[in-house]
Amino acid sequence: MAGIVLLALGAAPAGAQQARNVIVFLGDAGGVPTLNAAGIMAHDRPQSLFLHTMPNVGLSDTSARNQWVTDSAAGMTAIMTGQKTDNAMVSVVPSTAGGAPTPVKTLMEYAEQRGLSTGIVTNMPIWDATPAACYAHVPARKDKDEIFRQLLAPRFGDGIDVLVGHGRADAVASFAAHGTTADKAFAGAGYRFGSDPALVGSGGRVAVLRDDEFAPLPTVEATIATLARNPKGYFLMVEWDMHTDDPHKGLRHVVEMDDMIRRISAVAGKDTLILFTADHSFGLRMGGGDRKSPLAQQYAAEAAKPEVTVANNQVISIDDTHTGEEVIAAASGPGAEQVRGFFPNTRLFDVMLSALGWKRDE
User: Fold this and answer.
1) pTM score
2) 60 an active-site residue?
3) CB 254 within 8 A of CB 136
4) What does the pLDDT read at residue 362?
5) What CATH number has the domain bearing residue 224?
6) I need a surface site. Which of 65, 265, 286, 306 has the fewest CB within 10 A?
7) Whole-angstrom Cα distance, residue 161 to residue 110?
8) CB-CB neighbours of 152 under 10 Å
């Protein structure tokens, strides 16, 4: 079956370069409507994001194994393992015999097994569904204690080299419940542990957990500089939350990630496959506005009316829920030519695996 999937990707062009590194930029809830609204809100013109200039673009189905509308756990599992699973499951698939779910190997685990450096940067909790799908295997995404345990007890390699994300208080509580401290647990697993992103690049393996925002671009640049020291290459997953239940925050995060992708595309090197996609879309609708004044001003003026809520704003309205339409996948670098047309989100796993010159385990 794996061979059939890889054949469907098509043969690489003669003389095509193999990827040494792969960077996945994951916009959590970053569907087409959200990207469109963020670009116009920030730049007052359509198709104004750097993402809109990326040379290879396709549309990815995000449905879960058991539901048409996915959550982040099933959505990211499909991208990281090439297999669809049920909502709330993290890199496991249900057993056909009705027993315990079966773990499925993630791309990060393939990279760890082959000696590449690995990293995760996220503005969500490090144990949350999207980052967890890179390294953990649990039937319930809320099982943070088990996710933390697996984070520090990798199945392959020596574990993720750079970890930056939220969830410090969660880690403190989780490890305290098991009779230790987060500091001791991470130190025992070989990490320098702290809350300052400046730790990245200071030497050795680093885990930075905090409960407030941090400057994304310097952190991602420092992470890449650290991972790139490995001559075998690296795999990095960067997640940025684009949920627009808070429209200003969500749309700002789109622009922040777009700026990251612009900068990293300029410095990562020609041997790096850069992939942007979303795990699912979201219920944002741009329903009004004219070109006579900035869209941000029009949205703010509408929002200031006493009777207007985020749900009935005539400029940009929000239905606070995941939605099931396809999302953009955009890519550059070795293997990017395989990102085209319409495809299931599971295909992105094979695109990355093929770009690195690897095959699925039998």
Assistant:
1) 0.94
2) no
3) no
4) 65
5) 3.40.720.10
6) 306
7) 14
8) 17
Asked if residue 43 belongs to a known ligand binding site, the reply is: no
362 falls within a domain: no
Strands 205-210 and 162-166: parallel
Q: Across residues 211-215, what is the average pLDDT? A: 94
Question: Is there a binding annotation on residue 243?
Answer: yes
Domain region containing 108: 18-281+325-355
The pLDDT tens digits of the residues spanning 7-22 come to 344 444 545 689 999 9
Residue 319 among known ligand-binding residues: no
Q: What pLDDT shows up at residue 5?
A: 41
The answer for residues whose C-beta is within 8 angstroms of residue 304's C-beta and 6 or more apart is: none
Is 62 annotated in a binding site? The answer is no
Query: Would you say residue 181 lies in a domain?
Result: yes
Is 130 annotated in a binding site? The answer is: yes
Annotated catalytic residue, options 48, 60, 63, 72 = 72
Residue 106 and residue 86: Cα distance in Å, rounded?
16
Over residues 305-322, the pLDDT tens digits come to 999 999 999 999 999 999
Burial 30-61 (b: 16+ CB within 10 A, else e): bbebbbbbbbbbbeeeeebbbbeebebbbbbb
Instruction: Report pLDDT for 252.
Output: 97
Distances (CA, A) of 37 to 165, 254, 295: 26, 10, 9
Strand intervals (E) in 141-261: 162-166, 191-194, 205-210, 234-241
Q: Is 221 annotated as a binding residue?
A: no
DSSP secondary structure of 11-33: PPPTTPPPPSEEEEEEEET--HH
